Amino acid sequence: MSKVQVMDHPLIQHKLGYIRDKNTSTKEFRELVDEVGMLMAYEVTRDLTLEDVEVDTPIKTTTAKRLSGKKICLVPILRAGLGMTDGIHSLIPSARIGHVGLYRDPETLEAVEYYAKFPKDIEERDILVIDPMLATGVSAIEAIDAVKKRGATKIRFICLIAAPEGVEALKEAHPDVDIYIAALDERLDEHSYIIPGLGDAGDRLFGTR
């Protein structure tokens, strides 16, 4: 079954408090989301595989560690997932970046893929699917479906804030995907907004309404 990890590190929780604040400016909001993404990446990547390599220091040859295999592919869900991606990518600059674009069908309310672009060797990489919010879970489930269809098997989902309903839906749909969140909120309201949440992450990131 999926592992669900809520990251209670003081720095993450401190910055998340400002992210929730409706008075935080667009510029500050974007910077904070970027910073929290970077902090979360430390824990999300804790169990990546390492290999021994020989390097020459200024003094002598020694054995050092490097990530083994094809490493990582970051997959933000457009558009809000972009807000966390730069922070994670700055920590793991060798990571490739794919993208998944989804929209919600107004009649069925299902997530529909309108764009997908991934590295050709996605099946060999550890995948981090990124979205600031996990509300109903529909978008996350569809995005993970998209990378699995392309052959990916080692997948993790990372977000800032989740509702219990979304966590359960994602666990049921993809029990092999671990979930990393900065906060597990109370519930969804009648319009499927996370309570207390932070509002619309995309609008707050990009200054739109």
Primary descriptors:
6 helices, two-stranded antiparallel sheet, Rossmann fold, 9-stranded mixed beta sheet, single chain, 209 residues
Brief characterization of the structure:
The protein is of the alpha/beta class. It contains six helices and 13 strands. It has a single domain, classed as Rossmann fold.
Structure, described:
By secondary structure, this protein is α/β, with parallel strands linked by helices. The chain has one domain: 3-Layer(aba) Sandwich (Rossmann fold), CATH 3.40.50.2020. It is built from six helices and 13 strands. It has helices at 10-20, 26-44, 82-91, 138-149, 164-173, 201-206, and strands at 4-6, 50-56, 61-67, 72-78, 96-97, 99-104, 111-117, 126-130, 133-134, 154-162, 178-184, 187-188, 194-195. Strands 1, 4, 5, 6, 7, 8, 9, 10 and 11 form a nine-stranded mixed sheet that branches. A two-stranded antiparallel sheet has the order 2-3. α2 crosses α3. It is globular and about 65 Å long.
Write the layout of secondary structure elements.
Blueprint: E1 4-6, H1 10-20, H2 26-44, E2 50-56, E3 61-67, E4 72-78, H3 82-91, E5 96-97, E6 99-104, E7 111-117, E8 126-130, E9 133-134, H4 138-149, E10 154-162, H5 164-173, E11 178-184, E12 187-188, E13 194-195, H6 201-206
Parallel strand pairs: 1-11, 4-5, 4-6, 4-8, 8-10, 9-10, 10-11
Antiparallel strand pairs: 2-3, 6-7, 12-13
Helix pairs in contact: 1-2, 2-3
